[in-house]
Design brief:
Mean pLDDT of chain A: 91
CATH superfamily of the largest domain in chain A: Winged helix-like DNA-binding domain superfamily/Winged helix DNA-binding domain
Number of helices of chain A: 5
Low-confidence stretches of chain A: none
Largest sheet of chain B: 6 strands, mixed
Distance between the termini of chain A: 34 Å
Strand content of chain B: 25-35%
Oligomer: heterodimer
Low-confidence stretches of chain B: none
Largest sheet of chain A: 2 strands, antiparallel
Order of helices and strands of chain B: EEEHEEEHHHEHEHEEHEEEHEH
Number of domains of chain A: 2
Helix content of chain A: 55-70%
Shape of chain A: elongated
Radius of gyration of chain B: 22 Å
Order of helices and strands of chain A: HHHEEHH
Number of strands of chain A: 2
Largest interface: A-B, 17 and 23 residues
CATH architecture of the largest domain in chain A: Orthogonal Bundle
Strand order of the largest sheet of chain B: 6-7-8-3-9-10
Strand content of chain A: 5-15%
Structural class of chain B: alpha/beta
CATH class of the largest domain in chain A: Mainly Alpha
């Protein structure tokens, strides 16, 4: 089974960080339940075409933050994650996406008021779409 | 003991070919790809590691032992697959298995059986009657189950069909993860390097260009799409100018220089491993 992790080699976000954040999102979003076994470091590295150094770093960070746990001789598993951490991950993911959008707009020389206007317009359209559905 | 192999200041002259100096450290749990142009010295390096040739300078330790000492007991901890097997021709797979498994106390018979079954190698045909692909599969089946700490494969997938290759990569990934093992393989196959290697040791015409961690190397190189790059500027990090921009091996320095010159770039992309290897070979 291939894991739903998509790395972007062109992103400025380091690869280990991308792995870390995507696994976090899967755990926080409930797609990966507590107790789900994770692939071994080497197996995931092979699938993602990265070195074990990179994958190990992501796993170590996730373990430190309590998202996964390693049981000696058995492997690595999704940990029981507190509700507050879940909220934090969701918040972080949305924050990053919006921040990235704003940065793109700034790169194209949009002014702050123009960006605000665009955001409002996008929100307005989304609201209309949801009301119709 | 934290390293399985240490190569230090190694040099060897063969006629007018000069290998080295080579410095390499192999740690448990790692996969190192030996990469280089034809005649770059990959096979010579491996032969020196296996004490099949003597170095002129420097030294090689495998498991903390000099490889060219009297005591060759370290050999039972190393599985080595040369590019060409000498002396196999008259024997069939059954006989070869008997000969080889006897040399390795930790021979893994179930793994051998699995590989033979998965690769569909006929064991009753003599080696010389097998196709190059089948010979390679049999060789791998005779090498991987040796239960050693270190495995050195010299171009293991040259003749392999696609499904067998993907199976082999799975088997090797699984093999290296157990018991603090390490794998070194020489290869021209970028796919194998991408999927399996943690470190890339790159040789060119006998010289070692470097030993790189894969993602570090990938992150080092960036290509920029720029219109109107001044022609004679000395740009920090510049590796190569291209029709619409440049390639940098120090993106931070390049970008701050570009910003200082008020030059903007329309696109910034990372390079393929293949392109990076090509650039390393071209500019070193």
């Amino acid at each position: 089974m291939k894991w739903p992790i998509r790395l972007s080699k062109d992103s400025r976000e380091p690869i280990y960080h991308q792995i870390e954040n995507q696994l976090k999102a899967l755990i926080a979003g409930g797609q990966l339940e507590a107790g789900t076994p994770l692939p071994s470091i080497r197996a995931l590295s092979k699938d993602l075409e990265v070195s074990v150094i990179t994958t190990r770093r992501a796993y170590q960070d996730l373990e430190q933050q309590g998202f996964i746990e390693t049981i000696q001789g058995k492997g690595t598993f999704v940990a029981e994650v507190a509700g507050t951490s879940r909220q934090q991950v969701k918040m972080d993911a949305v924050w990053r996406a919006l921040e990235e959008a704003a940065e793109t707009a700034r790169r194209y020389d949009y002014s702050y008021p123009q960006i605000e206007e665009l955001f409002s317009e996008i929100l307005e359209q989304l609201r209309k779409k949801e009301e119709k559905a | 003991m934290n390293t399985l192999a240490v190569i230090h200041d190694l040099e060897k002259k063969v006629d007018d070919f000069h290998l080295g100096p080579i410095d390499l450290t192999i740690e448990p749990g790692t996969v190192t790809a030996l990469i280089g142009n034809n005649g770059s010295g990959k096979s010579t390096l491996i032969k020196l590691m296996m004490n099949l040739a003597k170095p002129d300078m420097g030294n090689i330790h495998l498991f903390d032992k000099f490889v060219y000492g009297q005591d060759e007991s370290w050999k039972q901890h190393v599985a080595y697959l040369p590019q060409k097997q000498i002396g196999f021709s008259p024997y069939n797979g059954h006989t070869l298995r008997e000969l080889i498994s006897g040399l390795y106390p930790n021979w893994d018979q179930p793994l051998f059986d699995n590989l033979i079954k998965a690769f569909q190698v006929p064991l009753d045909k003599t080696y010389e009657k097998l196709s190059p692909g089948a010979q390679q599969k049999l060789n791998l089946a005779l090498t991987i189950p040796r239960g050693t700490k270190l495995m050195i494969l010299d171009e293991p997938t040259n003749f392999m069909d696609i499904p067998s290759k993907s199976l082999l990569l799975d088997v090797l990934a699984d093999w290296v993860e157990r018991d603090g093992r390490a794998l070194i393989f020489a290869s021209h196959q970028v796919e194998d390097i991408r999927k399996l290697a943690d470190y890339l040791a790159i040789l060119k015409d006998g010289r070692q260009i470097g030993m790189f961690e894969k993602e570090r190397l990938m992150e080092t190189y960036q290509s920029y799409w720029i219109n109107g790059l001044p022609e004679h500027a000395a740009i920090p990090g510049l590796v190569e100018r291209q029709a619409n921009g440049l390639v940098s091996d120090d993106p931070e320095a390049t970008e701050s220089w570009l910003k200082a010159q008020h030059i903007s770039w329309q696109d910034r992309t990372s390079l393929d491993l293949e392109e990076i290897i090509g650039l390393l070979m071209k500019h070193h």
